[in-house]
Amino acid sequence: MRSRTGLGSESSASGTGSSGGLGGKHRIAIAAGVAAILIVSMVCAALAGAFSSATAAAASKASGHDVGTHGGVAAAPRRATSAPGRKSTVKAPAAKAPAAKAAALDAGTQAGLTSCRSVAHIGDSTSVGMVSPESLPNPAQRLRAQYRDVGVQHALIDASGGRSIVEEMPGQINGYRVATAWFQQGFRGCWVFALGTNDTANVAVGSNVGLTARIQEMMSAAHGEPVMWVNTQTDLTSGPWSEANMQSWNNALVAACKSYPDMRIFNWAAMVQPQWHLDDGIHYTSQGYAIRAHAIARALARAFPADGQSSQCVVN
Predict the structure, then answer these.
(1) Fewer beta carbons within 10 Å, N or C terminal of the chain?
(2) pTM value?
């Protein structure tokens, strides 16, 4: 498979730029559910602002604005459980000899590497912790380092609490507009979309922009370039962010995959363990974020490997 190239070295962006978005039909549809969406946004700001603001602020200060700082995902009350704070099982990757690694990249055949030289990662608050020094003090465990370890040379990362593909909280840019701006600025490469948790909740509370329309909108922003979606999971049994609603989103992703030859889905939901979650049932402990960052990067290498391309839509 050809090497994926894009913008300059180790870039980061905050998603500003394009005013692109949904067409008129979708804007009308959004209006039908706007009251409910505003309620969701208010709940987001009230219940999860503390997590997102503290984590994102630390990340922005320490990592050169890799992270958006707008709001956070709110969670319905979770059943009373504990989230053991076990030490992370993800160790910092061993250093590799630069010459040997360069030779492997040139050959494009080393196991565990991806053909995606440039990656644009757009996520919600479940991505914030993967780039946050507060959640992951060890830089080798953070998402950028994990992508680099599988052969990604240039990475754009934008994570914003409460983000969806369609709706926007005050001062926020939705996932579609971030992707559109990056494409217009010249990005060409592979995309990782870690979105859907809030989209599912927004649909559940009344948005008339359905799950499939949201996926199609985001895929249009990639313009046929390789895309890996990270599917969704929560520990909640009721409410807009319930696991039942997350399964509906995941099923919609699988159905959409048939229409996009270069779309892959990382089945994160199949590997999540309850102890990786905070008590809100949505966000993760430091251990959970370390495992999530490691797993996403390795899934990218399986979805779009250096010596070919996965033939399966779902990557486990």
Answers:
(1) C
(2) 0.71
Structure tokens at 108: 């494009």
Q: What is the pLDDT of residue 110?
A: 53
Q: What is the pLDDT of residue 95?
A: 41
Structural domains present in the chain: 24-76+89-315 (3.40.50.1110)
- The Cα–Cα gap between 81 and 234 comes to 14
Binned average pLDDT, 10 residues per bin, the chain of 316 residues: 37 36 39 41 40 39 37 34 32 42 43 93 98 98 98 97 96 97 98 98 96 98 98 97 98 97 97 97 98 98 87 92
- The residue among 132, 14, 159 whose CA lies nearest residue 73 is 159
CA distance 56 to 70: 9
C-alpha to C-alpha distance for 292 and 97, rounded to whole angstroms? 26
Q: Is residue 162 within 8 Å of 44, Cβ to Cβ? A: yes
Burial of 65 (0-12, 13-18, 19+ CB in 10 A): middle
**Contact by Cβ (8 Å): 217, 178:** no
**Quick one: pLDDT at residue 265?**
98
* Contact between 172 and 68 (Cβ < 8 Å): yes
Name residue, tokens 């949904």.
Answer: 22
